[in-house]
Amino acid sequence: MKRNAIFGLVGLLIILVVASGCISSSSTPNENASGGPPEDKGYGKGVGEDVDVSTLPAENLSQDEMAAILYMREEEKLARDVYLTLYNETGLTVFRNIEKSEETHMDMVLSLIEKYNLTDPVEGLGIGEFASPEMESLYNELVERGKTSKLEALKVGAYIEELDIKDLNEWLEKVDNQDIRVVFENLRKGSENHLRAFVNNIEKNGEKYSPVILSEEEYSEIVGPN
Question: Short name of one Pfam family for this protein (predicted)?
Answer without folding.
Answer: DUF2202
